[in-house]
Design brief:
mainly beta, four-stranded antiparallel β-sheet
Length: 70
């Protein structure tokens, strides 16, 4: 789970991995006025079986010669 905030908006990102159920990614976004929630948005998306994270593609695998500087 990841969470963050910006001004009066808070967000939560999480993934659901339950055996026998489709894996999903969920994002909840809340807008606050003081301590009260005034708006809420949510997004749910089924995660692909073999996802590709292009940002992580730039990081060499652990123990690789490239990561170890060899």
């Amino acid at each position: 789970m990841h969470a963050g905030n910006y001004n009066n908006t808070r967000r939560v990102h999480l993934g659901q991995d339950t055996q026998g159920v489709a894996q999903v990614a969920i994002a909840d976004i809340f807008q606050f006025s003081g301590s009260c929630i005034v708006e809420h948005w949510d997004i749910t998306q089924e995660r692909p079986a073999n996802p590709v994270n292009r940002l992580r593609c730039q990081i060499p695998p652990r123990g690789s010669a490239e990561q170890d500087g060899r």
